Amino acid sequence: MPSLSRPVLSGFARDILSGLSKTGQKEIHSKYFYDDLGSALFEAITFLPEYGLTRADERLLQTYASPLASAAGQVTSVFELGSGSGKKTRYILEALREQYGALIYSPIDVSAAALAVCEKETSDLADVRPVRADWIEGLGNLSQTRSSGPVLLLFLGSSIGNLERSYIPSFLDSVRATLKPGDLFLLGADLVKDVETMLAAYDDPTGVTAAFNLNILGRANRELGADFDLRSFTHEIRWNTKERRIEMHLLSGRNQTVFIAALDKTFDFEAGETIWTESSHKFSEAELLDFAGSAGFAPVHVWVDHEWRFAEALWKVEA
Ligand code: AVJ
């Protein structure tokens, strides 16, 4: 009866166990960055002069909300994967409401705090129905709760960049399978740009991104009773040319052993060894078109910011 002798492990504990037990590259999944402190640190990242991504996303939505609503056609409800605060979404909701009237808006997020802020930010523009769930669960919810008219599903901020590139086609297949002919999908994706600019965006001299990265170990200390010495790990950024992605790592400065109470287990780190914490894939416009085609979407339009190469791609489910 193993259930009597072993406490049930949280998802975080289970994933840390498998990620740090790997014989080759150790890893901790990037979804664990976003506890309250991590979310606040990410919010701070969006203000960094070196991190142009979020501002480009917002600039595009603000500038092109109205042509975007025209290109989408009549939409009666909007769903959003990983809505965060909903600040960017306001532009789209405003334009849709102006052109087509009343709207239902379902933000889908794992953070109850983010959903509460989002509801407050958007309730003057739509009938807001928040859903607390991860992306995959949230998509299941969409097909059950949708109203009769066409749906616009939003996936903004280049969150797609955190998915393994080889997994993206099957992810988009399941997005497509959730939707109906005539529905729309708006994907925000960061584009490949010069390497120096991309590296600086993830390695700011202020150290905010380093703090964001290290906080994943702090979170393990707080939630799992681990004893990571945060001062003995450093933030490391790599551009992986072959995979076209920025990788974040935490580099162990010395040989050390870390104890994790929730797992009742120790893990050894060698000096110079890293824990891989995130991949942020960067895309080309051609690649986005291929993704659309292979998942059975018809590309409607793409808006690109030329100050910081970022794309908003609007796709329609073919009838
Ligand atoms: C929120 C996933 C888009 O990958 O650029 C920012 C997270 N990581 N700085 C990204 C992040 C380091 C961000 N996304």
Task: Please supply descriptive tags for the structure shown above.
single chain, 319 residues, alpha/beta, 8-stranded mixed β-sheet, 4-stranded mixed β-sheet, 11 helices, 39% helix, 25% strand, binds N,N,N-trimethyl-histidine
Overview of the molecule:
There is one protein chain. By secondary structure, the protein is α/β, with parallel strands linked by helices. It has helices spanning 2-5, 11-20, 36-45, 53-72, 89-100, 112-122, 135-145, 168-178, 195-201, 208-224, 285-295, and strands at 26-27, 77-81, 104-109, 127-128, 131-132, 151-155, 184-190, 233-240, 245-252, 256-260, 265-269, 274-281, 297-305, 310-317. Strands 2, 3, 4, 5, 6, 7, 13 and 14 form an eight-stranded mixed beta sheet that branches. A four-stranded mixed beta sheet has the order 1-12-9-8. A two-stranded antiparallel ribbon has the order 10-11. A hairpin with a 4-residue loop joins strand 13 and strand 14 (310-317). Helix 8 (168-178) packs across helix 11 (285-295). The longest helix has 20 residues, at 53-72. The N and C termini lie far apart (53 Å). The mean pLDDT is 95. N,N,N-trimethyl-histidine (AVJ) binds next to helix 10 and strand 12.
Q: What is the overall pLDDT average?
A: 95
Q: What's the overall geometry? A: globular
Strand content: 25-35%
**Main sheet: strands, sense, barrel:** 8 strands, mixed
Q: Which small molecules are bound?
A: N,N,N-trimethyl-histidine
Cα Rg: 21 Å
Q: SS-based structural class?
A: alpha/beta
Question: What order do the SSEs take from the amino end to the carboxyl end, as H and E?
Answer: HHEHHEHEHEEHEHEHHEEEEEHEE
